[in-house]
Queue: 2 jobs
Job 1
Amino acid sequence: QEYVLIKLRVVEPWPEVLESVRGREVYLVPATLRPETMYGQTNCYVLPEGEYGAFEQADGSVFVCSKRAALGLAHQGSTNQHDGGFVPYAAASMGVVKSVVPGTIKGRDLLGAAVRAPLSIYDAVYVLPLTTISMSKGTGVVTSVPSDAPDDWIALHELKEQPELRDKYGLSEDTVAKFDVVPVLRIETEEWVSDVSAAYWCEKLEITSSKDADKLKKAKDITYLHGFSKGVMLVGKYAGTKVSEAKVLVRNDLLASGDAVLYLEPEELVVSRSG
Ligand code: ZZB
């Protein structure tokens, strides 16, 4: 599985948990399969109970992600632990990567941090909680595109509508209030048309909770399928282009500008998850 890791740069106010790397180039690195939707990023999600680390990369920058993903990246040669040469899988799996922040970073400690998301129309977006994140997929960090990802839409909607939920995580209203859903691509089928397909399907299927797994899966399947086959870009450099073509163009632009890196999900680690 090839994911694109988007580099979301941590900016002031600096989170306390990252104090030891203050002033350095620190990024949260969500894994995405939908680089063409990055114009619509409204926030970033982490798992509150998830365990993350801050891992130094070969260029001196620091990636905040799961240890599992850091090992996978090391396997691909993203760290300089082995004189810049190929990093053997065995060495990576023996724990060559080391977090440059002492102790573990809980997702909870990252909530409310501000990050700069490449291509997003918003200057800075905030780190918010998502309880359905799997720590054994991607990096454990997810970038949120509520226009086209149903899981992202409902979780943001809940945080906007429920002050008690924000209180539970110590989040101010500012972290969600002004972040309206951004239309990124139009899907037009014979039955329906929408510029914010995830929002459209969440409402149509009457999804009211992020725990509504069955309906969310249905909404996700529909938006994924039609987004790729029928979607046309509405914004950015490739406005007017089909999603199926824009996807690789935006991916390549993000890689070329240094705003993203590739992450190949290692087979071995996926297999070991199921025993
Ligand atoms: C931006 C985006 C925009 C995404 C969209 C989806 C959609 P898959 O197919 O199940 O592998 N994701 C990444 N890592 C995780 C994780 N650890 N736990 C939960 N969700 C995760 O799904 C890959 C997508 O799931 C990724 O692409 C990411 O969200 C999220 F408009 O990034 B995506 C209809 C989906 N639309």
Job 2
Amino acid sequence: MRTQVGIIGAGPAGLLLSRLLALQGIDSVVLENRSREYVEARVRAGILEQNTVDVLTEAGMGDRLHREGLEHRGIHLQYPGVRHQLDFPALCGRRVWVYGQTEVVKDLVAAQLAGGPPLLFDVSDVAVEDVDTDSPRIRFTDADGVARVLECDVVAGTDGFHGPSRAVVAEGGSGQQLWERTYPYAWLGILADAPPATDELIYAWHPDGFALYSMRSPSVSRLYLQVDPSERIEDWSDDRIWEGLATRFALDGWELSTGRITEKSILPMRSFVSAPMRRGRLFLAGDAAHIVPPTGAKGLNLAVADVVLLSRALVRLLQDKETDLADAYSDTALRRVWRATHFSWWMTSMLHTSGDAFDAQLQLSQLRRVCSSEAAARELAENYTGLPY
Ligand code: FAD
Ligand code: DHB
């Protein structure tokens, strides 16, 4: 088997890269070690930046997004006694959309299977070779158990945080640098068949811990509670979760709407950056190279930003035979990665309680500042809606 770009991983990064390359006449093959059902059902991010919506729309992936996605003009910041709306269009002329990562992935998979480049699910034993030459290859076992070799001009490692590609970069001679921060918090996330009791997301600071009110549709709410990372989901009954949410979102004259919980899990929170995002003909994009804590909803959007940059670099490399954009890819991508890393760390630090009384006063002071100063609010709004590419 031969292709121009071998893509490892059919998450949003790999699928979108394949689509953007196809639109430019570059062929690719996407290899995914999970099943289609698993990939399409994995509940993750829910907020798309304006940039992400623009890219998906231009790539012909905007029909259902514009029909079913919820356009939001802002978010609410809450602390005891106060719920304050930040109006993004007024602050920075941009907005965000609620459209689940599951839906983005379903749209991309459907387009790919309807005449797009090959997409192979349920592969195993993926191994990348010869990335320091101009003809790298990927060895893998296909869904029928047959050992195969994919000869490529370039390999894209879009295989998420646990995929094999990052280690291949690390084994290169140019050295790898890692930065990591694990946070002493986790998020307990639920999906519930409950109409959202809010028009826009609520990021709530509370002495018991942070809570986030998000949604997936007019009838499905997505809610999160800050919990200790050592907590076990079995110890959180539905009643205990609803009580925790009601306490943390409490506001005079407002009521939480409850419903059947259809999914619940606990997510660890970490920041992680690995550089460079390239070794020879292997390029990393998305969670394969970096992780942000979820506060601020940057993970998926950052993966899309990487892929936009990488697709341009690969078109230039493979069609024009020019290496300038490929050579600049890692440094250029990492500048945006570090901005998002800072913003996600800042949102996380402002909103999650540690039990320390001094920290709590600093957080409340910062929240009052963002809710009273246009300059402070604009800084949040610009980062949240996504800085222009
Ligand atoms: P992924 O979506 O991880 O895709 C990588 C793909 O590679 C996967 O399909 C995987 O199965 C495949 N793969 C892995 N190893 C191999 C292999 N050996 N061979 C072949 N394929 C392989 N971000 C937010 O903004 N908000 C959120 O609420 C949020 N919640 C999250 C919850 C969880 C549990 C996780 C893990 C992440 C969450 N994120 C969230 C982050 C966001 O989902 C990611 O940033 C986004 O999925 C990155 O896309 P990606 O394509 O780079 O990686
Ligand atoms: C969602 C997740 C986030 O991390 C966030 O900041 C906002 C919304 C969500 O899953 O809907």
